[in-house]
Amino acid sequence: MNRVPGTHPRARRPWLAVVAAALATFAVVTTEMLPVGLLTGIAQHLDTSTGTVGLTLSLPALLAALFAPIVVIGAGGVDRRWILAGLLALLVIANLASALAADIRWLLAARMLVGFCMGGIWAIAGGLAARLVPAHGVGLATSIIFGGVAAASVLGVPLGTWIGDLAGWRSAFAAMALFSAAVLVLHLVAMPTLSVSASPTLRQLRGQLGNRALQAGLLLTLLLVGGHFMTFTFVRPLLLGVAGVDPRWMGALLFGYGIAGIVGNFIAGTAAARHPAATITAIAMGLLLTPLLYLTLGDTAAGGTAVLLVWGLAYGGVSVGLMTWVLRAAPQAVEIASALYVGVFNVGIALGAWSGGQLVDGPGLTAVLYVSAGCAGAALMLALVLTAGGRRAGTETKNAG
């Protein structure tokens, strides 16, 4: 976000405001991920195919990609506190509409509203840390805010699955409506005024589109996120049909995946602060191994469970690792860079979920695993090139000195 240095508001409880921002990102991304663990139940109750229900993930993701820059630029000089409050209120409505959906068209309409909320909340949250806490705490605050994204990515699915198994898929959406309402109340209590001195512009957006370091980070995002969601959207049928897991253990297994993902988030967050390219390389390698291991060792309950934990560890670092790269690539245009990152991230989700659905309804899950491995392999090659390029640049700088 463009602003005059030192003009961030002095929040009475700055870290409570940071927690409120983290919970906002957690709420919107958990809402986004919720259908993943509920696909089978939704398809049965709404009398449609599993691949069609996959649109409940890809559609809002695609719209979030469109809405993120629109919200950031269209917000102009409006206080970001009130924009976030409005988006959280819409998130409550979207979850209630999903819980009450009478057919797949109703559900998809509700999920379109989720896409609008997701693009706006995530993009604006990217620039909040420096406005809420003193300079020495910005790194930690950023980690906490985007920790909400990481935690939602790895815990949203098991939480939704657990609630869905206990009380049905509609109850999972209703629970998210209640949680989002609680986050809205906390936001109104804790978040200070977030006025802006200069808002992002189309000219600034066009300028960042030519930023080569940002371009590299966005391409890595597309490959890693797209490849991941191509498979993860259908993790339930993967575990049930390929690994032969007992349905009663599904929630527990996905919770284990979530815990592994949180561990991966903290490991990657620490490493990315010093070596972002090397961190992304390690993550890409983990996401390449995951589908390959499912193809070779994942045909038993024990093997499928072990691979799932490796998967969570690898993907848990994606959000914080890629966001660290993006923010470093555009330190003077944080809100624009965040919006572009959110856009590409969600294009990756949309393309991954859609193409995964096409493959599931066609060749089957084995084809999904092979294509997912190809995406991760391409990201690994790019990350290795970037890492080698960074080392050469460092060597040349040292020799010149």
SSE topology sketch:
Blueprint: H1 14-33, H2 39-45, H3 50-53, H4 55-74, H5 80-99, H6 104-125, H7 129-132, H8 138-167, H9 169-190, H10 202-209, H11 212-232, H12 235-242, H13 250-272, H14 276-296, H15 301-315, H16 318-329, H17 334-361, H18 365-400
CATH level 4 superfamily: MFS general substrate transporter like domains
Number of strands: 0
CATH architecture: Up-down Bundle
**Backbone CA Rg:** 20 Å
CATH class: Mainly Alpha
- N-to-C terminal Cα separation, in Å? 34 Å
Number of domains: 1
Unreliable segments of 5+ consecutive residues: 1-9, 393-401
How much β-strand is present in the residues?
under 5%
Estimate the global geometry from the Cα principal axes. Answer: globular
- CATH topology name, in short, is Growth Hormone, Chain: A
Largest sheet geometry: none
How confident overall, as mean pLDDT? Answer: 83
Helix content: over 70%
Q: Structural class of the helix and strand makeup?
A: mainly alpha
- The SSE string, one letter per element, is HHHHHHHHHHHHHHHHHH
The number of helical runs is 18
Oligomer: single chain
InterPro entries: MFS (IPR011701), MFS_dom (IPR020846), MFS_Efflux_Transporters (IPR050189), MFS_trans_sf (IPR036259)
Domain Major facilitator superfamily (MFS) profile: 17-391
Membrane topology: Multi-pass membrane protein
Keywords: Cell membrane, Membrane, Transmembrane, Transmembrane helix
